[in-house]
Amino acid sequence: MRSASISRRAFIRGGARAALVSTTFGASALLSACGGASDDSGVTETPKLSTIENFRDVAGIGEGYPTVDGGRLRRGVFYRSGALTPDDADAAALARLSLRAIHDLRAVDEAALAPDHVPSSAERETHEVAPIDASAAMPGDAAAASAWMSERQRQLVTDPVARVQFGLLLTRLARVSGAQVMHGTAGKDRTGWAAALLLSIADVPLDVIIQDYLLTNTAAQTQIDARMKAAASRLGTDVQTVAPLYQAQSATIEAAFEAMHREFGTLSRYLAQGLSMSSADVAMLRAKLVA
Fold first, then answer.
1. How far apart, in whole angstroms, are the C-alpha atoms of residue 204 and residue 70?
2. Which CATH code fits 2-289?
């Protein structure tokens, strides 16, 4: 188990930096070219939104997440969330972030159920990835629920259509200037994988990436509790049995990284071959993310 963990760490560490070195531009030149992000000192604090689930800064809080080489992530660049359905107060808070793009990962029928309220400063872009429909699972126990969820998360890595859409999402995040939001319905599965990829590109330690994924359980606790109780009632079972379907679990995101490692060997190969990303766009993302 320990060797597998070390292998995954090396896999992440070896990918994004290689892409950055391979470009002829330095980080500051890349940021200038994209109209990038300025120093964190002027970044508006991430608002606490009561009507948008799981809204948070991809870079974390405070000084931002650390990188393996001692750097810190730049806040106020990329945000993640569930569906953008704010009330008036939350809409005003979003407006203060001066967002430039909203990236919706939901399928058309999902988005129709809860249409985005896009701030006037932003454009909405769609990157349709099929949702993980937890209501389709019929687990006999928590272990079965966890295994079901891990398999569905692996499919986000291996499915050709999902890979195309994640590649387009990351490419647009690299090329659009200014602050941006990416989201799904609850902001856990598809959005969680996209956020994990961004953190991996920035050389954030794997342990920190996993802890960031697990923060969904705190940020969206009320909504998750409601979903678990409803599912348990529908299936005639207890909340503990269905919890892995609705809570973020380390085994789920680790399964995605293991699938990536197994299928592509390195992060840079996954980004280049699996997601069809250019080394310049990967380097641009890292330049935007790392202060």
1. 10
2. 3.90.190.10
229-258 per-position pLDDT tens digit: 999 999 999 999 999 999 999 999 999 999
- The amino acid at residue 223 is Q
Angle at 95 between CA 54 and CA 97, to 5 degrees: 70
pTM to 2 decimal places: 0.88
The strands making up 56-57's β-sheet, listed across from edge to edge, are: 56-57, 78-81, 179-183, 99-104, 123-126
* Domain extents in the chain: 2-289
Evaluate whether 229 touches 129 at the Cβ level (below 8 Å). no
The residue type at 179: A
Residue/partner pairs of 276-282 with CB below 8 Å, 24 or more apart: 276/163, 276/164, 276/167, 277/167, 277/170, 277/171, 278/171, 279/19, 279/22, 279/23, 280/23, 280/25, 281/170, 281/171, 281/174, 281/175, 282/16, 282/19, 282/20, 282/170, 282/174, 282/201
